[in-house]
Amino acid sequence: MEMFKNAVNWFEIPVKNFDKAKAFYESIFDYQMPEMPMGPNRMGILLYDQPGGGIGGAIVAGEWYEPTAGGSLVYLNGGDDLNSVLNRVPNAGGAVVVPKTLIAPEVGYFAIFQDCEGNRVGLHSPK
Q1: Domain locations in the chain?
Q2: Which member of 36, 103, 117, 127 lies 3.0 to 4.6 Å from 67 by CB, making a disulfide possible if both were Cys?
Q3: To which H or E segment does residue 92 belong?
Q4: Under a CB-based contact definition with an 8 Å cutoff, are residues 18 and 61 in contact?
Q5: What's CA 118's distance to the chain center, in Å?
Q6: What is the band of 125 on the pLDDT scale with cuts at 50, 70, 90?
C-alpha cells in the first residue's frame, strides 16, 4: 500500500449564495477572498501557502454543490488560537455548534460552527 504525505489534496465547501458565503468567510478569517471561475462554477479560495506545498480549498457555488450539515466535516486551520476566528462566527451570520474544546495537550483544540449556508465546518488550533 502506498503511503501518501497528506490524506487531503483539496476540499470544497458547497454554497448556494456565493456572495453571502464569501462575505461570511472574509469576515471570520479577516481577509479578502480571491475568486476564481472554474467553468460555470464560482470559487472563493481560502488562504493557504500554495508555493510552500500547503493544501487548500474553496467555497464553491455551482450545479453540483448543495450545502449540508450532515456531510463530510472539514477542519480549517484556526491559526494559533481558533477563538480568534470562532468569536467572529455569530456576528458574520453563523452559529457555534461546539465551542473550543481540548483534544489533548499534544494535539490542540477543535471547535465546530455552522456557516451562513448551513454547512458544519470545524476549526483546529494548537492553543
Answers
A1: 10-125
A2: 117
A3: helix 89-92
A4: yes
A5: 13
A6: very high
Q: Where are the beta strands (DSSP E) in the chain?
A: 10-14, 35-38, 41-45, 56-61, 75-77, 95-104, 108-114, 120-125
Identify the CATH number of the domain defined by range 10-125: 3.10.180.10
Residue 28 grid coordinates: 471570520
pLDDT in tens, 7-40: 899 999 999 999 999 999 999 999 999 999 999 9
Long-range contacts of 100-108 (CB under 8 A, 24+ apart): none
Query: Judging by beta carbons within 10 Å of its beta carbon (0-12, 13-18, 19+), is residue 41 exposed, middle or buried?
Result: middle
